[in-house]
Amino acid sequence: MSELRIPQELLPADGRFGSGPAKVRPEALETLARSRVLGTSHRKAPVKDLVGHIRSQLTALYGLPDDWQVVLGNGGSTAFWDLACVSLVRRRSSHGVYGEFTHKFASAVSRTPWLDKPAVREVAYGSGCLPDIDPDADVYAWAHNETSTGVAMPVCPLDGADRESLVLIDATSAAGGLAADVRNADVYYFAPQKNFSSDGGLWIALCSPAALQRADELTSAPDGRWVPDTLNLSLAAQNAAKNQTLNTPAIATLVLLAAQLDWIMDNGGLGFAAARTRESSRRLYEWVEHNELARPYVTDPALRSPVVGTVVMDERVDAPRLCRILRENGIVDVEPYRKLGTDQIRVGMFTSVDPDDVSRLTACIDWVLGEIV
Ligand SMILES: *Cc1c(COP(=O)(O)O)cnc(C)c1O
């Protein structure tokens, strides 16, 4: 039984504001229910055509050059970090760390026995940074969108980096929701449970020729490192070229991903998606600006993410109670990232979220604040 009942007319049409897994569009679920490919072989034409369609839609969405490849495999973005330690980092990487996810990749590298300790530039959470230029770095890594803190960083060229080095961008929560010129990177990788409104479990990597060449070099060295098949980017690329994955993928995840790609492309592509998330976040931050009980966690407006908004509540507000009341009224997952302060709320505004629902969310929060403060 709810502590407080928010008036029906204030409630959003869809109360899912999580930062991943995030809102799945009901229309996509209908496509899934009608799909005839579930329960059929991933080595036969219907599933391979689906994978091929996803690869060509991603190529179109990002305007990828002909010599880039869309590669995919099982295990999500976390598995991709391990794969990068095997298949992409030759000896040393340099990281920009400004939240839990950027930290996790740096940590994965630092625990890899055959790699040097990585260079890590870390700033206070709520801010952002690019990696330091390092003469020994053969990989540079940062995140397009740091989901734990709601900081977005540009996918930009790195002045002074060795031309041989690779740039790996964690785009898990950015891809499909923020515009990017991915040609400034070598690998733009993500998982489909955020802007792509699918389920977790897959990693997808847009790979430059230099990245694929690095993977070939590292995974085929005769006296080189141990390369498990699941962490072998060259093997994944060979499979992807045949519209396959190394081992069985979750086919429902592929169907939902394809449905979301079709929806985004039919509405105008990345420009549509980016405008929608920009509008959602504009509404959230405008509300924050006019609310004396709330302030932005990300103080520099230029760093504020359009897809994940983080808001610090005034000390007069019991933020966990606010989240609990919202949850009891069907508005879910606005709790802050687990290791961040409990005085926050975090609002996922991925492409599927209707900007009008963000406005309704803020109206609901105002209503609850009126009751509990
Ligand atoms: C969600 C997220 C991840 C983790 O993705 P998994 O698929 O759960 O491994 C990594 N990086 C960022 C930026 C994320 O938002």
From TrEMBL:
Which Pfam families has this protein been placed in? Answer: Aminotran_5
Q: Which domain of life is it from?
A: Bacteria
Cofactor(s) the record lists? pyridoxal 5'-phosphate
- Extract the InterPro entries matched here: Aminotrans_V_dom, Pser_aminoTfrase, Pser_aminoTfrase_mycobac, PyrdxlP-dep_Trfase, PyrdxlP-dep_Trfase_major, PyrdxlP-dep_Trfase_small
Provide any one GO MF term from the record.
alanine-glyoxylate transaminase activity
* Class in the EC hierarchy, top level: transferase
**GO annotation (BP), single:** pyridoxine biosynthetic process
Which keywords has UniProt assigned to this entry? Amino-acid biosynthesis, Aminotransferase, Cytoplasm, Pyridoxal phosphate, Pyridoxine biosynthesis, Serine biosynthesis, Transferase
Q: Where is the Aminotransferase class V domain?
A: 133-331
Pathway, per UniProt?
Amino-acid biosynthesis; L-serine biosynthesis; L-serine from 3-phospho-D-glycerate: step 2/3
Q: What is its EC number?
A: 2.6.1.52
**What catalytic activity is recorded?**
4-(phosphooxy)-L-threonine + 2-oxoglutarate = (R)-3-hydroxy-2-oxo-4-phosphooxybutanoate + L-glutamate; O-phospho-L-serine + 2-oxoglutarate = 3-phosphooxypyruvate + L-glutamate
Q: What does this protein do?
A: Catalyzes the reversible conversion of 3-phosphohydroxypyruvate to phosphoserine and of 3-hydroxy-2-oxo-4-phosphonooxybutanoate to phosphohydroxythreonine.
Q: What is stated as this protein's family in its record?
A: Belongs to the class-V pyridoxal-phosphate-dependent aminotransferase family. SerC subfamily.
Q: What is this protein called?
A: phosphoserine transaminase
Q: Which organism is it from?
A: Propionibacterium cyclohexanicum
